[in-house]
Design a protein that fits this description.
This protein has two domains: 106 residues, no CATH class; 74 residues, no CATH class. It is globular, with a radius of gyration of 19 Å. By secondary structure, it is an all-alpha fold. Helix content is 64%, strand content 0%. It contains seven helices and no strands.
Length: 192
């Protein structure tokens, strides 16, 4: 299990001036990522095996599978959110926040599909989150609202970094097209 103290230690090594509120915010991001990854895998397990569409392997302990799922999700989250912050070479200068944003922009410019992999999670753009909520207010009432708005924010941020036009209102054809792209990305997450 990834603990707050571990996250704080990693952040302090990577960014010595990190504040407690930044640690808390990043730890919440790590917890959310862990929860989302476990939930997706548990849902898949439930839908495919416990739901009866596939045959349950003989001799397999359900608790053992749950433990392996948690362990696998933890390794993924640790690699994505903690290990990347630590650079192996002590001589390498730590990146400033602006340099990290520049790096994020470079990734998103080079790979237009990177938003689907949550490449914008580290520094979500609040203005893009606000735009997503303005464009698709009907999503606030859904069970998957958080996931929808996270992906929509990532998509809009990616588009801005790539210099693409952003929709101005929910009636625009581009807004409808992006809406479909976000739902397609959510469906892809479920199909892993």
């Amino acid at each position: 299990m990834i603990m707050r103290d571990e996250v704080r230690d990693v952040l302090q090594r990577a960014f010595p001036a990190v504040t407690d509120s930044e640690v808390d915010r990043y730890y919440a991001t790590v917890e959310t990522a862990m929860s989302l990854r476990c939930d997706r895998k548990f849902r898949w397990l439930r839908d495919n095996y416990l739901g009866g569409t596939a045959r349950w392997p003989e001799g397999v302990d359900l608790q053992g599978i749950f433990d392996r799922i948690r362990s696998y999700a933890e390794r993924q989250v640790r690699a994505d959110y903690l290990d990347e912050l630590l650079m192996a070479d002590a001589e390498v200068e730590r990146l400033t926040a602006d340099e990290v944003v520049d790096l994020e922009q470079d990734v998103l410019k080079a790979s237009p599909e990177a938003w689907k992999t949550r490449a914008c999670d580290m520094f979500p753009r609040q203005d893009m989150g606000g735009l997503a909520e303005d464009l698709w207010p009907q999503e606030r009432q859904t069970l998957w609202a958080e996931n929808f708005y996270n992906l929509a924010t990532a998509l809009l941020t990616s588009m801005e970094y790539r210099g693409l036009a952003l929709p101005e209102d929910s009636g625009a054809a581009l807004a409808r097209e992006l809406y479909v792209q976000v739902y397609d990305a959510m469906a892809d997450e479920r199909d892993w």
